[in-house]
Amino acid sequence: AVLLRVYRCFCQEDFTKLNYWDNWLSATRETAELRQQSWQMGRSLLNLLRELAPARDNLPEEANYATAFAIGASHWQIGEELAVLGYLHSWASNLINAGLRLIPLGQTLGQSLLIGLQPSLLTATADIISLADENLTSWSWGLSFASMNHETQYSRLFRS
């Protein structure tokens, strides 16, 4: 939902409000590891956008991943609904890919899982587009507790 707001801010060149939403995203990342992950992915995507669209001089130096994704979608004039759906699909793909590495699922089952998620991703996209600012919340205490434990482990396969 914040991605959609950042997308609109970038289209309107409202960088004050864009920074507000990017800071909102940072505040919802309760652990250092989750913030670092989002910032690193955002930096990487912004660097790619600078390479692909060097004429853009209004890109932020740093941003969360969702912010960078929204900026890229806005720049290439990808519609709001497709931008949100693409973002949700990319996260689902990443989670399934991590599962393929950790669990012997196999590529075919992984693709079947992703196809099975399409109706849920479409529903989530519609819900996100209709969500009012005052109804935005972050409710991820389970993820926060898991991240607190994970970021202090001696060895890890993934950052988060």
Short key terms for the protein model shown above:
160 residues; 0% strand; 7 helices; globular; mainly alpha
Would you write up a description of this structure?
The protein has 160 residues and is mainly α. 70% of the residues lie in helices and 0% in strands. The chain is globular. The two termini are 22 Å apart. The model has no long low-confidence stretch (mean pLDDT 86).
Give me a quick take on this structure.
The protein is mainly α.
The 3D shape can be described as: globular
Mean pLDDT: 86
Low-confidence stretches: none
Structural class: mainly alpha
| Helical coverage, percent range | over 70%
Q: Report the portion of residues in β strands.
A: under 5%
Largest sheet: none
Question: How do the helices and strands line up, and which of them pair or pack?
Answer:
Elements: H1 2-11, H2 15-27, H3 32-52, H4 65-75, H5 80-102, H6 107-130, H7 141-150
Helix pairs in contact: 1-2, 1-4, 3-4, 4-5, 5-6
